[in-house]
Amino acid sequence: MKVLATTAVLMLTAALPALADDAATCGTVRYSDPGWTDITATNGVAAVLLESLGYTPDIATLSVPVGYEALKGGQTDVFLGNWMPAQQKFRDDLDAAGSIDVLTQNLEGAKFTLAVNKAGAEAGVADFADLDANKDAFDGKIYGIEPGAPANQSIQAMIDADQFGLGDWELVESGEQAMLAQVSRSADTPVVFLAWAPHPMNDAIEITYLSGGDAQFGPDYGGASVHTLARKEWVAACPNAARLFSQMVFDVPMENALMGKILDDGADAKDAAREWLAENPQAIDAWLDGVTTLDGQPGAEAVKAAVAG
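== Choline ABC transporter substrate-binding protein ==
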């Protein structure tokens, strides 16, 4: 998969003209944030790069389903948070419409499935099949993320089908931070919740990812890859900005570091990104290869000057 993804990125970037400035109409780049800290972090990186190049980032906070409809309908241009295979049905819809380019796989090594805290593991829960025998300890609740998220839909479908005997359990939907606050408050009480990497929760909480959920979340504990999508018309009209997004590839340690600054230190996403970029100029060279400012000047030099100041 990695070889194929790399080949696809090379083919795409080769097709995009080097040192080709975009039209003034490309000056505002619209993208969305579903309220997940990992996407907030990568969106922040994109925002710093775009602003340094003379573009204006316009980030809308939209739930996953609404965000995909916005991309499909032309209200946004780019989305950095296409988690696969969890969001396969949204991709199927976009692919059927024929209006979307997959610019790159921007992250590998991610995972996303149900997990329990230390108290849950000590109760003997290590697999989806262990949950129902411990229903009372968990108060019959599974803590999810924001309403409409594909992972929540998978949990609700599991409950509706009475899989693993969970038919009388309840899905509690809330935002990421509310869910994690609940887990933190319940340090001595078993809690089952959605967990994923990259995320600093993996350092802050003693987490046990549950086996047995391959049919619901995919193999390897919900092993996932994250992709950057963009509207075909936008890619054709704004090849310089599209080239930038096609070359922005992250890794789990980098995202963990950014997310930790946002969640633990209270840093603004752009401030965290600016600090990381100043400390990692090699990333700027790779991401800005062949990319210019909006008015056609060398892009890497402009970004380095902006983050150094």
